[in-house]
TrEMBL record, chain A:
<dbReference type="InterPro" id="IPR018731">
    <property type="entry name" value="Atg13_N"/>
</dbReference>
<dbReference type="InterPro" id="IPR036570">
    <property type="entry name" value="HORMA_dom_sf"/>
</dbReference>
<dbReference type="GO" id="GO:1990316">
    <property type="term" value="C:Atg1/ULK1 kinase complex"/>
</dbReference>
<dbReference type="GO" id="GO:0000423">
    <property type="term" value="P:mitophagy"/>
</dbReference>
<comment type="similarity">
    <text>Belongs to the ATG13 family. Metazoan subfamily.</text>
</comment>
<protein>
    <recommendedName>
        <fullName>Autophagy-related protein 13</fullName>
    </recommendedName>
</protein>
<dbReference type="InterPro" id="IPR040182">
    <property type="entry name" value="ATG13"/>
</dbReference>
<feature type="domain" description="Autophagy-related protein 13 N-terminal">
    <location>
        <begin position="91"/>
        <end position="200"/>
    </location>
</feature>
<dbReference type="GO" id="GO:0000407">
    <property type="term" value="C:phagophore assembly site"/>
</dbReference>
From TrEMBL, chain B:
<dbReference type="GO" id="GO:0000407">
    <property type="term" value="C:phagophore assembly site"/>
</dbReference>
<protein>
    <recommendedName>
        <fullName>Autophagy-related protein 101</fullName>
    </recommendedName>
</protein>
<dbReference type="Pfam" id="PF07855">
    <property type="entry name" value="ATG101"/>
</dbReference>
<keyword id="KW-0072">Autophagy</keyword>
<comment type="similarity">
    <text>Belongs to the ATG101 family.</text>
</comment>
<dbReference type="InterPro" id="IPR012445">
    <property type="entry name" value="ATG101"/>
</dbReference>
<dbReference type="GO" id="GO:0019901">
    <property type="term" value="F:protein kinase binding"/>
</dbReference>
<dbReference type="GO" id="GO:1990316">
    <property type="term" value="C:Atg1/ULK1 kinase complex"/>
</dbReference>
<dbReference type="GO" id="GO:0000045">
    <property type="term" value="P:autophagosome assembly"/>
</dbReference>
C-alpha cells in the first residue's frame, strides 16, 4: 500500500485529493454529456473560459455535479475512489422495459503507485490526458450510438452515480470490458474503465427486471436515477422523486414558450392576485417567469465555473428543514372527542403547512434599509394605513374587552 | 478496407492521437511561467463507417490532416488498377527540434511514431463493415492505453524553446510538432539518420 508520506508536503497531498475530486466530477460530466445524444459541433458550445479544469471544455451541469457529490463526499475522495465510483447508464423503453447498458468505473489501485511522480503540475497534466481518453472512449461503445438515436426514437436514457460494489451482473451475460487508462500516481493508480452490454435486445418477458429486483441493494436506493434526455413530452418521470420547490419550473420539451407566457399574462390580468397575498404584481416585461426547457437548462450552465459547487447550497434558515419528515397524525386512543385531539390536529396542520412566500417578504420588509423601491413603499403604506385604523379604534377595542370581562364576571357569579 | 473508407479510418486514428497530443495555446507570463488555454473538441461522424470520433476543434489543424490523408488516399487508390491488392502506409510522427551550430539546420528528433498500414480490398465482403468498426474501436482503446503509459513526452518548454517542442502556428490549438509520412511500399518511411533515435514506435497494422 502506498503510504501518504510519498507526497513531499501536506499541500501536495491536499492538491492531489482536490485534483482527483475534480477528475471524478469532470469524468461524470463527460460520460453524461456523451449520452445526451447531441453531436458536439464547432459552434455548438460557447467559447470556454481559460479557467476550465484540466484545460478541457467539459460542461459543468449542476445537476450532474450534485449527483456526483452525493456519491463522492468531499472529505472521502480517495476512500471513495478506493471503493470505486460508478456511473450506470440505462435505457427505458416506452413500454417500461429497462436495461442497464454500461457501467463506468473510477477506481484507485493502491498497488500501482509511482513514487517518482512528484510534481503536481505533471499529475494535473496527465489527469487531463486521462480525461481525453475517456472522451474518446465514450464515443465507441454501443450506448453512444443508441444515445444518438434517442431524439428520434421513443426511449429514455438514465444515469445514476453511486459508490461501492459494482453491480456488473446487471449487464447480462455478454459483457465487454475496456480499460480507458490508468494513471500511476504516488497514491496509487487512478483507473477508468467501462463494462458494457454487447447484447442490446430487450427480452419481452422482462427477465432482466426480475433479476434486477433480486440484486437490488442500498446503493440503488441511495442513488436515484436521473434522466439524461427525455425524447418526448410523453410521460412523467417514473421515479418517485421529491419535488424540489426551490428549483425553477421547467417547460416540457417542444412547448411553445411564447404561448405559455401569453396564457400566464392573460390569467393574471383576469384574476389579479390580491395585494395582501403577494407583495408585487405580475410584471412580465420586468421579471420573466422562471420556466426553462430541459435543453435550455443544459445550455445555460456550460460556462458556470467548476469552483461554484465548492460552496455548499444555502439552506433556508428559520424554517423547518426540508429533510425533516412531515409530522404524522398524532393518535390518541379512546380520546376521539377530546379537545386535546383537536388541538393536536390543528398543530399538525400548521406545522406541515408550506412556507408562504409572504412570510419571507414580510421578514425582508422588516429588515429593509432606506432606498426602497416604489412597490415596497406602497406595501408599507398599506400596512401603515391598516395600523392607523386599528390605532384609532383602540378605544372601541378597550370597550369591547371591558364588556367581555364584565360578562365573564357575571357568569362566574 | 474499401477505398472509400481509407480517409475516414486514418482520420479517426490520427485525430484521436492528435487530440491527446495537443494542448491549449500557451501564454507565457515570464520565461518559465505560462498559462494554458482551453481545448475544445468536436464529434465527427464518418460517412462510410458507422463510427464517430473526437477531434480538436481547430479548422486549420483539421484541414491540414485532411489534405495529407487525401493525398495518401489518392496515391493508394491510384495504384489500384495496376496492383491486385494495393497497400501502403501513412505515419504520424511527433518530433522535437534540437538546436544545431550555425550553419546547420535544427535537428529533428522523432519521439513517437504512429503508422497505419492499409491494404485495399476490391469490394466489401459480408461482415467487412462490422470488422472495420471493431478494428477501429480496438485501435482507439490501444491509443489511449499507449498514451496513458507516459513513456516519453518532451518536457514543457520555456518561452524561448517552445517552438522546438510545439507547433505554435495554429491560433486555436498547440499540438506537439508533427510530420506525416506517406509510403506506397508497405513499409513505413523513416526520417533518414534518425531511425536509431526513435524512442517509441507503435505500428498499427490494419
Amino acid at each position: 500500500m502506498a503510504p501518504d508520506a510519498v507526497f513531499s508536503s501536506v499541500a501536495d497531498r491536499n492538491e492531489f485529493t482536490k485534483f482527483a475530486k475534480f477528475l471524478a466530477y469532470k469524468g461524470v460530466q463527460v460520460i453524461v454529456e456523451s449520452r445526451k445524444g447531441e453531436k458536439i459541433e464547432a459552434a455548438s458550445r460557447s467559447q470556454g473560459a481559460d479557467t476550465d479544469w484540466f484545460n478541457l471544455q467539459i460542461p459543468d451541469s449542476p445537476e450532474v455535479n450534485q449527483a456526483t457529490k452525493s456519491a463522492l463526499p468531499s472529505d472521502k475522495v480517495l476512500e471513495t475512489f478506493k471503493a470505486e465510483l460508478h456511473v450506470e447508464i440505462s435505457v427505458q423503453t416506452e413500454d417500461g422495459d429497462e436495461m442497464v447498458l454500461e457501467l463506468w468505473t473510477f477506481g484507485l489501485d493502491e498497488t500501482q503507485f509511482d513514487p517518482t511522480l512528484k510534481a503536481m503540475n505533471t499529475v494535473y497534466f496527465r489527469m487531463g490526458i486521462l480525461l481525453k481518453s475517456l472522451i474518446a472512449i465514450t464515443r465507441i461503445t454501443p450506448a453512444y450510438h443508441l444515445s444518438r438515436q434517442q431524439r428520434t426514437e421513443s426511449f429514455t436514457i438514465f444515469y445514476r452515480v453511486y459508490s461501492g460494489e459494482p453491480k456488473s451482473q446487471i449487464l447480462g451475460d455478454s459483457v465487454k470490458k475496456i480499460q480507458v487508462g490508468m494513471l500511476r500516481t504516488p497514491r496509487g493508480g487512478i483507473k477508468f474503465s467501462v463494462a458494457y452490454r454487447t447484447d442490446l435486445s430487450i427480452s419481452p418477458n422482462r427477465t432482466h427486471k426480475s433479476k434486477s429486483l433480486l440484486l437490488k441493494s442500498d446503493h440503488f436506493e441511495l442513488s436515484p436515477k436521473h434522466v439524461i434526455y427525455d425524447s418526448k413530452d410523453k410521460r412523467e418521470v417514473k421515479e418517485k422523486q421529491p419535488i424540489d420547490l426551490n428549483k425553477p419550473l421547467r417547460l416540457a420539451a417542444f412547448v411553445d414558450e411564447a404561448l405559455v407566457k401569453q396564457v400566464f399574462e392573460e390569467f393574471f390580468r383576469k384574476f389579479p392576485v390580491p395585494k395582501c397575498r403577494i407583495s408585487h404584481e405580475w410584471k412580465p416585461s420586468e421579471k420573466p417567469v422562471e420556466c426553462k426547457s430541459i435543453l435550455e437548462l443544459d445550455n445555460d450552465i456550460i460556462l458556470k465555473s467548476p469552483t461554484s459547487f465548492e460552496l455548499p447550497p444555502k439552506k433556508f434558515s428559520g424554517f423547518r428543514s426540508e429533510n425533516e419528515p412531515p409530522l404524522k397524525l398524532l393518535y390518541f386512543p379512546f380520546a376521539d372527542r377530546h379537545p386535546l385531539r383537536e388541538l393536536a390536529e390543528f398543530y399538525k396542520e400548521f406545522f406541515n403547512a408550506p412556507h408562504l412566500k409572504l412570510t419571507e417578504e414580510l421578514e425582508r420588509s422588516h429588515s429593509k434599509t432606506p432606498g426602497l423601491d416604489v412597490e415596497e413603499e406602497i406595501e408599507e403604506n398599506d400596512l401603515s394605513k391598516d395600523l392607523l385604523i386599528y390605532e384609532n379604534s383602540i378605544q372601541e377595542f378597550d370597550d369591547l374587552l371591558a364588556d367581555m370581562c364584565r360578562s365573564a364576571e357575571w357568569s362566574g357569579n | 478496407m474499401e477505398g472509400r473508407q481509407v480517409d475516414e479510418v486514418i482520420a479517426s486514428i490520427f485525430h484521436t492521437v492528435l487530440f491527446h497530443r495537443s494542448c491549449g495555446k500557451f501564454t507565457y507570463n515570464s520565461e518559465e511561467s505560462y498559462s494554458i488555454r482551453t481545448v475544445s473538441y468536436v464529434d465527427v461522424d464518418c460517412d462510410f463507417i458507422d463510427f464517430t470520433y473526437v477531434c480538436c476543434d481547430s479548422e486549420a489543424l483539421a484541414s491540414r490532416i485532411k489534405r495529407e490523408i487525401s493525398d495518401f488516399s489518392e496515391l493508394l487508390r491510384g495504384a489500384a488498377p495496376s496492383t491486385a491488392s494495393p497497400h501502403g502506409s501513412i505515419s504520424l510522427e511527433f518530433f522535437q527540434k534540437r538546436r544545431a551550430r550555425w550553419p546547420f539546420q535544427p535537428e529533428c528528433v522523432p519521439w513517437e511514431v504512429w503508422t497505419v498500414c492499409c491494404e485495399l480490398v476490391d469490394r466489401s465482403l459480408p461482415g467487412e463493415h462490422e470488422s472495420v468498426v471493431e478494428m477501429l474501436q480496438d485501435k482507439i482503446v490501444f491509443i489511449t492505453e499507449i498514451i496513458n503509459r507516459h513513456e516519453y513526452v518532451p518536457k514543457m518548454p520555456s518561452r524561448s524553446d517552445v517552438d522546438l517542442i510545439f507547433d505554435t502556428s495554429y491560433s486555436d490549438i498547440q499540438p506537439y510538432l508533427f510530420k506525416i509520412h506517406k509510403s506506397l511500399a508497405g513499409a513505413p518511411s523513416t526520417s533518414v539518420g534518425n531511425t536509431v533515435r526513435k524512442l517509441i514506435r507503435d505500428t498499427l497494422a490494419l
